[in-house]
Amino acid sequence: MSGDLATRQRALVAALVAGAPVPAGFDGRLVGITREALLRKRAGEVARYWPALMAGLGARWPSAFTRWAEGKPPQGGLRDGWDLARTLRAGGQLADPAAEELAAREACWHYDGASAPRRRRLPAARIAGGSLVIQLAGRARTFRPSRPASS
Question: What is the pLDDT of residues 137-148, one digit of tens each?
């Protein structure tokens, strides 16, 4: 009996967070409402780790995040945001401040998209949004091109 319960629980969790079909015996409408609430909560967690990413998308943030996250199991706010930022960058949809935020993370951390991020030990540099991000001794510095003075 406990094995059957565990199987049903796994199926329900998969339906809620990984896009699996709603298991038999559950109200699909209620599971859908719960899934949407969990996606909103997950978007809030990602926004705490990636404020420039959220700000760059503005009013599109909730829908952009939901479209990206639908059917993907959560990996935590840091990794989910990282994966979303990389997806947006690949599609040419990453705003400059968010590109700098991603470049700073990638200069300080190594993340292969599969395992947990780990700090870089050696100096690193990344270019994003016309800016240069350099990491040295664990700290990232961003250098932006100077703008000509207005007359």
Answer: 888 888 888 776
Q: In terms of C-beta distances under 8 Å and separation of at least 24 residues, what long-range contacts does 97-102 make, across chains too?
A: 97/52, 97/55, 97/56, 97/129, 98/50, 98/52, 98/53, 98/55, 98/56, 98/57, 99/128, 99/129, 100/52, 100/128, 100/129, 100/131, 100/133, 100/142, 101/50, 101/51, 101/52, 101/53, 102/53, 102/128
pTM: 0.83
Query: What residues contact 101, with CB distance under 8 A and at least 6 apart?
Result: 50, 51, 52, 53, 85
Given a cut of 60, is residue 1 above it in pLDDT? no
Give CA–CA dist 46/36, Å, rounded.
15
